[in-house]
Structures are given as C-alpha cells and as structure tokens.
Amino acid sequence: MNILKISSKNLVRNRLTTILNIILVAFGVGILSVLFLASTQINNKLENNAKDIDLVVGAKGSPLQLILSSVYHIDNPTGNIPAKDAYQLMRNPMVKRAVPLALGDNYSGYRIVGTDSSFTNLYGLSIQKGSYWHKDLEVTLGSNVAVTSGLKIGDSFFGAHGLTGSGDIHKKYAYQVMGILKPQGNITDNLILTNIGSVYKMHEEKHTENHKHTAAEEAKEINDKQITALLIQYKSPMSVVVFPRMVNHSTNMQAASPAMESARLFSLIGVGIDTLKWFAIFIMGVAALSIFISLYNAMKERKYDLAIMRCLGASKPKLFFLVMFEGVLVTFMGTCLGLLIGHAALEVIGIYQETSQAKLTGLTAFPQEIYLIWIGLFIGALASLIPAMQIYKVDIAATLTKDR
Amino acid sequence: MIRVNSLAHVYDKGRRLKFPCWEIGDMEQWLLLGASGSGKSTLLNIISGLLKPSQGAVLINGTDLYNLPVRGLDRFRGRHIGIIFQRPHLIRSLDVLDNLELAAVMAGLPIDHERNRSLLADLGIGDLAKNYPDQLSQGQLQRVSVARALVNKPDLLIADEPTSSLDDENANQVIKMLTTQAKDNGAALIIATHDARVRDHLTKTYLL
Ligand SMILES: Nc1ncnc2c1ncn2[C@@H]1O[C@H](COP(=O)(O)OP(=O)(O)OP(=O)(O)O)[C@@H](O)[C@H]1O
Ligand SMILES: [Mg+2]
User: Fold this and answer.
1) Structurally, how many domains does chain B consist of?
2) What is the reported pTM?
3) What are the residue boundaries of the ABC3 transporter permease C-terminal domain, all occurrences included (chain A) (predicted)?
C-alpha cells in the first residue's frame, strides 16, 4: 500500500475518464513523435547523402528532380547529357572530383548505377566481401541490396529497363555479382554499382529486340554516348557562385545544388509539418483541459476520501502530492503510450513506403524524445495543480460530520 | 488520560457553545449525551483534533493538541486517536483490507497484516476482507470502520452516533464490539449518542 497503489486504484475505479485522458495525451504525443522522428530521419538522410556533393550537372529540367534522381535516387532523371560535354566539364580547373552517373535500369526496385571508381571515393565506400566491379557486366552490391535480394558473390541476374518495376527485362546480358559493400548508412546501401560500359551494353541490346520505344528514340539514347548526370566536388568553395552560372549559361546542361534544393524541399514539407505540430499541440491542450475538468469534478466526491485520509493522519502536503501524482500518472502513461504509437506508426509507414531509398523506421529513438516525456509530466502537473490546491480548503470536521 | 479544560467554541454566525471540564482516565468508557444541537459532534471534533476550539485546551496524555504544529497534529491523530463517524466513510476504490492498511500508511506506521486479519475476524467480517465497500451492508460497513479505527492501537476511541443508521441487532452488536474492542486494545472510549439502545452498555455519562 503506497501512493502509487492508492492513485492507480482510484484511476481504475474511474476507468472511462482515465482511458479518455490517456488516449488524448497519447494522440498528441504520438503525432508529435511521428513528426519529430520523421523530420529528423528525413533531414539526416538528406544531409548524409548529399554530404560531399557540391553540385549536380544533368539535363535541363526541374533542378529538384535532378537532385532527387541523381543524389537521392528517388525520382526519374531529367534526361541525359552528351558524354563528351560532361567529360569536358570534368576537366575544368575548378572541379576537384567529378563522378559520372548512368542510370536507366533496376533489379527488383534497386537502381543499377553505371559509374567509375571516383564514386567509391566520393562516398568513402569499402568492400565487405569480394571486390569492386572491373569489367563490363560486373557489379558490386550495396549491403542492403545483398541482404534483401539474397544475391551472393558469383550469382548472376538480369536487370530490368526503367528505374522501378520488372516488366521489361534485358535477357541478353546477365550481370555478375563481384562483391558486396560494407553498410554505409546512406543511399549506397540500396544501389547496385557497375561501370558505365555495362549500361551502354544493355541498351545496345534493347536496340535489337526493341518493342515499345520508337527506333528514333532508341538511336538517340545509344549512338552518341550519353550519361545521366555528373556529381561534382569543387576545389574551393569560391566556385559556388561562378561554376553553376557557367554551366547554366554556356552549356546545354543544368547545374543544381543539393544543399539549396533539399532546403527548398524541406521548406515545402515544413508547412505541412508545422500545421500538424499545431494540431498536436492543440490536442495536448485539450488533454490538459480534460484532465483538469475530470480531476476538478472528482474532487466533489474525493473530498470525503481526502478528509478521511486527513483523519487517519495524512498531512495536507501529502494529499496535495497524491492528487498531483494522479494527474501526472495519467499524462505519464499517455506519453509513454503516445511514444509507442508514434514509433509503431512510423514503422508501419516505413513498411508501406514504396521507395527503399528514403525508408522511415520507428525502431530508432532520439535522446530528444525525453523532452516529450517531460512535457507530458509538466502538462499533468499543470492540469492537477488547481484541483490539488482544493486540499487546503477542505474542512475535515464539517465534511465528515455531514451526511454524504 | 484525557483532559478537557474550559472549552468553548463559536461557529461563524453561531451561538457560543460552552463545554464543562471533563477528565477521562485510561481505558474508561463514557457516554456523551445531549439534545440535538447541543454540541456533541462539535466537542468530539475538538477532542479528535479536527476542529480548533475558540477557547480552551485538550490534553491527551500530557500533549496539548492545539499547541502542536499542523503536521504534528495530523500525525498525533493518526497514531493515538481512532474515530468512527455516523457514516462509515470508507474509500470506495479500495477493498476492506486495503482500507485498514490505509490507516497505518497514512499515520506513517508499518502495516501489520496479521493484526488487520485478526481484527476483521474478531468483528465477524473476516471473510469480507477482499470485498469493496459497495458490496457491504450498513452494519458491515460500520464494523469495518470500527476495525479501521483500531488498526493503529489508539489510546482513545471516539464514536459519533455510530448506531443511528443501524437496526436493533446491528446496533447492539456494534456497541458490544466497540466496548469489548476498546477494552481489549487498552483504549479509552467515548460514544456520543441520543440512541436509547446504547445507554445500557455504558455507565459513565457526560451531559451537555
Ligand atoms: N460547521 C458549522 N458551522 C456553523 N454552525 C455549526 C456548524 N456545525 C454545527 N453548527 C452548530 O453548532 C451547534 C452544535 O452542533 P453539533 O453538530 O455539534 O450538535 P450535535 O449535538 O452533534 O447535534 P446532533 O445530535 O443533531 O448531531 C448547532 O447549533 C449547529 O447548528
Ligand atoms: Mg452530531
């Protein structure tokens, strides 16, 4: 028998009110924690994947789309650029490192990226098993690809045309797995790396057994060698101003900055996040009000219980603490439930997400979530303060001598 | 030993209630008699440390109740005085046994499970230990409140009209229990009443 037991027994006795209050708190906290987890994870992912890339050069079109397709591997590319123009740009003195990308195929949803060894340097990749690709049609798998596809070193597979879906399979040439990368915690875990030659080879094959595309389109795609994009690192930060302008004005290509585009993307998402945040705060406010009202109402009946406890020797501060404790207990349970719901919801969202590149997970926790618990406790204390103060007004003798 | 000295109390907008001096020896059993409105409940509340009198002092075994700090008075009441009201006033969310344990916890004393069980058995409600107050009859409830008043082995047992809502049989039993339990537990007993059924059980009377 202690305060916890007295409070919880009383909460159980008024279980409907208790459950309502717990659910209200849980909803508010749940929404806040989903927002918090999702935005932190998205932010981390955006930053992680674009960390060392100063600029992306690709075909003209939406700059956001260019970034999404060649840095985050989410959207479709804006188109292709002539390889010779790209190589010319790579030799520019302002460029420290330039990584060519040739996209176009996938294997069960994982993108096959044609590139060269500069890609491994850019992302600081290292091999877990086997080796990097060397010749055409050799590939190295991202760690996540290896785990989910079950492909092992020496296995071979066919790529499918397009960036998702497996409708249009290139049956003529099979890729061969040469190695598997160590987990990097970024986008490369979900990529299949090969050389640019392999991608060209696949599309030569397309040419011969072409079904859907017009001959003219195919010819354009293959004949004068093209690549999809170029990831660029500057020699000095000074180039930020000059280089993109040079690309945009003097070539037929487009330059986009990952930092700027992801900031723009985030500010778009941010409006929605803000709305939801205010909604969650509103729900928390309603929860606080509901706890306040139910505690305050209950005081009419609890007055007798509290007078009896005083009679049995409990001091006023002790009973004040008892009432406060009850309110705080409700919000504490609500907060914990809310965090649980938040994490579970995010995990479910992650499972139903189509793109494996930006997968959200509810299985990570952040130390900042402790603040949510503190906020919950604070709201509980705030809501029970006025009801608890009634303790100091109860006249025990009058209460107990009168009939109920 | 309990002493009441030149006590008087005036309620807001009420007339002045004066109480004659009163000395109660250890383990003595008293009836407090008086017409309705004569101030019986008021006097008992003052003796129990629940109502500060406008004038005068209450001494229990040498302790001047209203000279104690507020917290000290609460603690003293919890440990030395057992109170039984006209209505049982049990905590509805707790079962009978928990209601008894509450008395020890609120007074800051350790829980004596064996004593609680034997108290309930002595009062003939041993098999109701796990029942909730809503499931008990008036007579049973009043017995539980007698048991609760005895949990901390008080020096003084105070009962304000304990039988007024009970039938003859229950009233007789509750009074018998009060007197025997007070004796067995070494406590003095004061019963305020205008119930004729009670008068035969006690000899000493204090009239208001
Ligand atoms: N809280 C109070 N505020 C003001 N006056 C009160 C209060 N309680 C009691 N009184 C008055 O004090 C007087 C004594 O009341 P008290 O309840 O002590 O009488 P009692 O002898 O116990 O009566 P009864 O036998 O009906 O229980 C009455 O006149 C009553 O009206
Ligand atoms: Mg009375």
Assistant:
1) 1
2) 0.77
3) 279-394
CA of B39 to the centre of ligand 2 (A): 7
Residue type, B43: L
Q: What local confidence, expressed as pLDDT, does residue A219 receive?
A: 46
Domain that holds residue B105: 2-207
Q: What is the CATH number of the domain that holds B180?
A: 3.40.50.300
| B102·A6 Cβ contact <8 A | yes
Separation CA A50–CA A369 (nearest Å): 26
Which residue, among B91, B96, B97, B135, would best test binding to A if mutated, counting the most A CBs under 10 Å from its CB?
A: B91
In single-letter form, the type of residue at position A216 comes to A
What does the pLDDT read at residue A237? 83
Distance A138 CA to ligand 2 centre (A): 99
Report the C-alpha dihedral over residues A140, A143, A149, A151, rounded to 10 degrees: 50
Where are the alpha helices (H) located in A133-230, listed in sequence order?
143-149, 196-208, 215-222
A313 touches chain B (CB under 8 A): yes
Chain B residue nearest residue A6, CA to CA: B94
CA angle A204, A206, A207 (to 5 degrees): 65
Main-chain phi, psi angles of B159, to 5 degrees: -130, 125
**Which residues of chain A are within 8 Å of residue B148 when distances are taken between CB atoms?**
312
**C-alpha R_g of chain A:** 31
Asked whether the beta carbons of A291 and A324 are under 8 A apart, the reply is no
Residues 6+ apart with CB under 8 A from A85: A251, A252, A253
- Are residues B58 and B156 in contact, defined by beta-carbon separation less than 8 angstroms? no
Q: Which residue of A has its CA nearest to B151?
A: A312
Q: How confident is the model at residue B32 (pLDDT cuts 50, 70, 90)?
A: very high
B125: buried, middle or exposed (CB in 10 Å: 19+, 13-18, 0-12)? Answer: buried
Are B98 and A314 inside 8 Å of each other by CB? no
Residue from B207, B168, B154, B202 nearest B28 by CA: B202
Q: How far apart are CA B91 and CA B133, in angstroms?
A: 7
- Look at ligand 1, atom 30, and give the residue with the nearest C-alpha: B37
Q: What does the pLDDT read at residue B188?
A: 95
Higher pLDDT, A254 or A358: A254
Q: Is the pLDDT of residue A215 over 80?
A: no
How many CB contacts within 8 angstroms connect chain A with chain B?
A: 77
| A74-129 tens-digit pLDDT | 888 888 899 888 888 888 888 999 999 999 888 888 899 999 889 999 888 999 99
| CA distance linking residue B195 with residue B193, whole number of Å | 5
Please judge whether B70 and A315 are an interchain contact, meaning their C-beta atoms are less than 8 angstroms apart.
yes
Domain ranges across chain A: 3-46+265-401, 55-256
| A216 phi/psi in degrees, rounded to 5 | -65, -45
CB B34 within 8 A of CB B193: no
What three-state secondary structure class fits A363? Answer: coil
Which ligand ends up closest to the CA of B14? 1
- Ligand 1 neighbours (beta carbon < 6 A): A 398; B 11, 14, 17, 34, 36-42, 194
